[in-house]
Design brief:
The complex is a heterodimer. Chain A has helices at 22-30, 34-56, 59-75, 86-105, 118-125, 134-152, 156-167, 172-179, 183-200. The longest helix of chain A has 23 residues, at 34-56. Chain A has two domains: 10-116, Orthogonal Bundle (Rna Polymerase Sigma Factor, Chain: A), CATH 1.10.1740; 154-199, Arc Repressor Mutant, subunit A (Orthogonal Bundle). By secondary structure, chain A is mostly helical. Chain A starts with 21 loop residues before the first helix and ends in a 6-residue tail after the last helix. Chain A is built from nine helices and no strands. Among the domains of chain B are: 94-105 and 115-305, no CATH class; 312-357, no CATH class. Chain B is built from 16 helices and four strands. Classes of the chains: A mainly alpha, B mainly alpha.
């Protein structure tokens, strides 16, 4: 979903780039086609932002990291080689930025969304169907808050594996390469994460 | 269902996680991307060129290789047993000059023929060296770095201890008869049954009767006659077929085939020599010429060096143990070194293992000593 007021996403040649892969779009942007970057950004902006937000837990820090990730991609566009999926490349950049951020903060994998912005801001930012009644919107907000709370209580390694799988759509092998741990370890982390989330979100089951 | 995916969790997460970056941030990122494209192509940064890197690496490898080669100690190549063993007996025991006609014929050819020495040949050479060798036993002892007194004292010690067939001095009449009978029995058995089983044993010095009228000679050349007027018994060597070979020597594995094949020709040569001298017993002691070894030097004669390559290791070890216990030490060390050269991998008894560093000292390393 594009942010309202961002009319630059819908350029004239955008439709011609819908069929292109991420890697092709990146190569075309490196070759000088600015529209390719617009399409690429539209595909991954939400996932990268949520990955950063749920990891660092602070919206201002997430926005800063998000901007750094994409500007770094712009700077290094000439040296990009499609040796792997573009998703792996962009989430690796995001992962490295997170590591730098944690080092600068002297923390390791801290996630506390309530620290700075508070839950109200996040909840307000949630998209809700305006056609629903207030009771349904309240239930949706409560469910979203439960999911985020359950996600916060996950250990950082499990949370990272879960976020990379959900937001980036990465496979076990991609997550293994990105995080530097064996694939079996990633699999174990995902199993533990799913098990804990099931226990936490049992109330949401129909 | 995939173990790492849960549709319910996916759905719950998709419904809950709907955060988006703010529009201002999107605009900033896109504007930066468009500005970068409008600025023109970006030169791909190349790694810095280091043309000196390869020559430097090659030079370093070369220097290290030369250093390692210079610091590595070189291993000393041990002589092969066949090479180190061949000329020994010929050099130590020349043939007798005044022995027999055959002895005179064999004398000039002896130094130039480093042929492999067989047990029977060793026995003959030992007897010749004792009785009529051109080089007196004292010269042989001098080559070993010993004196005649040492060997004499050692022979007396062996005689006192009654050691095997190396007993010194005149034997009783019964003993002489028994030895003669055994020798005749052995020869007849060897002639009838062909070559005897090849059980290799070191030559052993036994006392053989002397023919009447013969005189023994002292190391100094003076003829010796004992108190009873009878001649002291002469020493002679008996080869591998001697029945008095210890039991452990008989248990030793048979020698390689080539040596066994030459055993028959050696026996024939020995028989031919006996025919030429007119003796019935080819291994009987030949009459001694003046100036040859005295019969009481049995210990000296028993240690006439034989070919280390054909010498039995176990018997040799027994002699080494005896030599180690009784001395002299220099002779023991020399014999031990010869044994190790001939049998470098033969297992040693503990006593000999203790003496091993004395003949095979640890060589100092060529590395420079580290500062304290």
């Amino acid at each position: 979903m594009l942010a309202p007021g961002c009319a630059s996403f819908h350029t004239a040649g955008m439709d011609q780039l819908d069929e292109a892969s991420d890697e092709d779009l990146m190569l075309r942007y490196a070759a000088g086609e600015a529209g390719a970057f617009d399409r690429l950004y539209a595909r991954h902006r939400g996932g990268v932002f949520r990955y950063l937000l749920h990891h660092c837990g602070r919206r201002a820090a997430a926005e800063e990291l998000f901007q750094e990730v994409w500007l770094n991609l712009v700077k290094t566009r000439a040296s990009y080689l499609p040796s792997a999926r573009f998703a792996s490349f962009i989430y690796r950049c995001a992962h490295n930025r997170l590591i730098d951020y944690y080092r600068s903060q002297g923390k390791v994998f801290e996630l506390s969304i309530d620290d700075e912005d508070g839950p109200s801001e996040l909840i307000e930012s949630l998209a809700a169907d305006p056609g629903e009644d207030p009771a349904a919107r309240a239930l949706a907000r409560e469910a979203s808050e439960q999911v985020r709370a359950a996600l916060r209580r996950l250990p950082p390694p499990q949370r990272e594996a879960f976020l990379l799988q959900q937001e980036g759509g990465l496979s076990l092998a991609d997550i293994s390469v990105l995080t530097g741990v064996p694939a079996e370890t990633v699999k174990s982390r995902l199993r533990y994460a799913l098990s804990k989330l099931r226990g936490e979100l049992a109330e949401l089951a129909p | 269902m995939n173990a790492t995916r849960d549709p319910h969790i996916d759905a719950w997460y998709r419904n809950a996680a709907t955060e988006e970056p703010p529009a201002a941030l999107d605009a900033a990122v896109l504007a930066a991307a468009h500005r970068a494209v409008a600025a023109g192509p970006v030169a791909v940064p190349r790694p810095p060129r280091t043309p000196w890197l390869m020559p430097l690496a090659a030079a370093a490898v070369l220097v290290l290789s030369v250093t390692v080669l210079r610091l590595t100690p070189t291993e000393e190549v041990l002589p092969r047993p066949a090479e180190s063993a061949a000329p020994g007996p010929r050099e130590a025991v020349p043939s007798a000059p005044a022995d027999t006609e055959s002895g005179r014929k064999a004398e000039p050819a002896a130094p130039a023929q480093p042929a492999p020495v067989l047990p029977a040949t060793r026995a003959r050479e030992g007897a010749a060296g004792r009785t009529g060798g051109a080089e007196p036993p004292t010269a042989t002892l001098a080559k070993r770095g010993l004196t005649g007194d040492d060997e004499l004292a050692r022979a007396k010690t062996a005689a006192r201890s009654g050691e095997g067939s190396l007993a010194q001095g005149p034997l009783a009449a019964g003993e002489e008869e028994r030895l003669r009978a055994r020798r005749e029995q052995f020869q007849t058995g060897a002639d009838s049954a062909g070559p005897a089983p090849a059980v290799f044993a070191p030559p052993r010095a036994v006392v053989a009767p002397e023919p009447a009228g013969a005189a023994s000679a002292s190391p100094g050349g003076a003829t010796q006659v004992n108190e009873t007027g009878a001649k002291p018994p002469a020493l002679r060597f008996e080869g591998a077929r001697q029945s008095a070979v210890p039991a452990f020597a008989k248990r030793v594995a048979e020698p390689p085939a080539p040596e066994r094949s030459t055993e028959g020709s050696a026996a024939k040569q020995e028989q031919r020599l006996a025919d030429q001298t007119g003796g019935t017993a080819p291994r009987a002691a030949a009459p001694r010429a003046p100036g040859v070894a005295a019969p009481d030097e049995a210990g000296v004669a028993s240690r006439v060096p034989v070919s280390p390559a054909t010498r039995d290791a176990n018997v040799w070890i027994q002699e080494l143990l005896r030599l180690q216990a009784e001395g002299p030490e220099t002779l023991f060390l020399k014999e031990f070194a010869s044994f190790r050269a001939a049998h470098p991998r033969h297992p040693l008894p503990p006593r000999l293992q203790e003496a091993l560093p004395r003949i095979e000292p640890i060589r100092p390393r060529a590395f420079p000593a580290s500062p304290p």
